[in-house]
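Question (not urgent): is this output format expected?
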Amino acid sequence: MPGDVFIWFGCLTLVCLSALLIILLGAFAKGIKNLDSKIDPDQISILIPFRNEPDLLSQMSFLKRQTSETGIGVFWIDDFSDNITDEVLAAFEKEHTFNLFRRTKGKPGKKEAISFGIKKLNTEWVWLMDADSRPDLMFFAKGGFRIKKSWRMILFPLVPMRVKGFTRKLFDLEFLVLQLVTHASAILGRPLLANGASLLVNRKDYIESLAHRADFNIPSGDDVFALFAFQDKYGHSSIGSGAKFLSPMKVGFPNHFIGLWKQRVRWVSKTPAVPDIWYLFVSALVFISNTSFAVLLAYSFTQGANALISWSIGAYFAVAFLFISRSIVFGKRKDLVLYIVPAILAYPFYLSALLFASLVSKPKWK
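Got this back:
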């Protein structure tokens, strides 16, 4: 019967997603060995693309304290901002470690700003950041940063800055889950995600990888499309993770629901265009299994659950709870523990609404 086929299919998707989460947890637990190379501070420049940032002076003050200990230069790429004040310009002129490039020609966009800026630098490595990132550069002051020789892109761990509010905490929890997926999949050797708020790339390799990209018509995904361009050109082993030996770095997010929602819609909208079968498969699995979870749960309450449904729902819930708990430990955010169960129950509906919104809206950067 059609109903039986759906039940079996729904249970199968839950088992498959549970298995994938267990594999990712296992990979993350193993960690990284044989760090046989090293990056020194004088090999790095920081590149920060921005447009109409409201708090540039605060970020500049933060980075001034950090860079004074390491000597790392910071290059700011203004992507057609219309709020640059004389005070901001004076601050740039005062700090010799800060360099401001202002784009006034060409197509606006974060990807264009990064490409424009990275071609102006001459260091071996470029640390891409957002204007609201709060990096910890002090590990460079202790003698450099050890990596594998094969790494050409390094994903740094991130954690949201703490802000009060039920909605914001749910979004923070989601972000930490994505971070665990990011680093566990990279350690596994099949990277799925990247985040441009803190991303270290080999400058020459980044420029060469641009020939493998056809995504500049899409406003989001400067990080993920770069990730898969690197994998396409240099292989899976070219992607490294700093999650096992670096503390998560803080990153800012919108404080209100509308801003957070628009950000997530922008993230999801790029999914169909990502040129990677593994990524598309996992994305489809997450959506279908979460839909199955909601439907099977509703079916159990209205029609009664058999052993197969009960076992599948129970196994998925337990694994999801474990995975989210590990994400909280990863991000050192014990304040989010009470939000685990509400997040599991709400996520299928949130994900469906997010996908619908991404189809009917046209996201843009800033």
